[in-house]
Amino acid sequence: MEYDMAFSVGPRCRPAYYLEKHGLRVCAYPLDWLVCSLDTTLHLHQTEFKDFLESYKNYPKKARPEKNTRYVLDDKNHIRFLHHIMLDQNLEDEIIRVRQLMYKRYLRQKEHINKSENILMIGNHNIKREKLEHFLIEMGKVYPNKHFTFLNIHNRKNGNNVHIYNLTDKLTLIECFMDDFEDVNAEKPWHGNEKLWDNLIPEIIVKNEFE
pLDDT > 90: what percent of the chain? Predict the structure, then answer.
């Protein structure tokens, strides 16, 4: 599989982590390390991130002192921030900084999409195919005349199935069902099934030919 660019569509950090691990994530995009749904991802692209982090809640009890980060929720868009908002800085200043940072990353992502023809989106959402298809179709409307492939990994015990759906000549959904359950005893359980991901991602070729 060969693409001009690839990016994570969540819902958490795992897809971005494996893209980076295998050299396919060459720059930062806004939602790489955030926790959010496909509905939120679609909304943000439809609205050009205009209401991103416009309203928020801080949860001091869930702060991560070992990482020096706050736990903050974008309560309008239902996005969880675990890595970006620093604990030892003024909260309001950090919100402004992160909003500006992510908007710049969005503009970069938009520019790269507009320069690309074949685009891979990768996620690991455990939701019905109809919702995956809806997301793919609507993203195709936001960025028309692009060939989008949406590779989604479903957690399925003993799973080893792949289904490919060509929704149009430019929109392709690939559903992979595999045993990607988190090992709570692992050092980094959020990595999921490393062996399976490490076998899957190297099959993907991404040009990433951006200045």
Answer: 87
